[in-house]
Amino acid sequence: MQSEQNKIRVVLADDHPIVMTGFAMSLSGLGMDVVGQARTPDEAAAMYAELRPDVLVLDIRFGTELTGLDAARGILAKFPAARIVFLSQFDQDSLIKETYRIGARAFVTKDCDPADLATAVRHAHAGKLYFLPQIAERLANLSVRGDVSPQSQLDARGLEIFKLMAEGLTNAEIAEKLNLSAKTISNISQAVKEKLGVHRQAYITKLAVKHGLIEP
Question: Which SUPFAM superfamilies match (predicted)?
Answer without folding.
Answer: C-terminal effector domain of the bipartite response regulators (SSF46894), CheY-like (SSF52172)
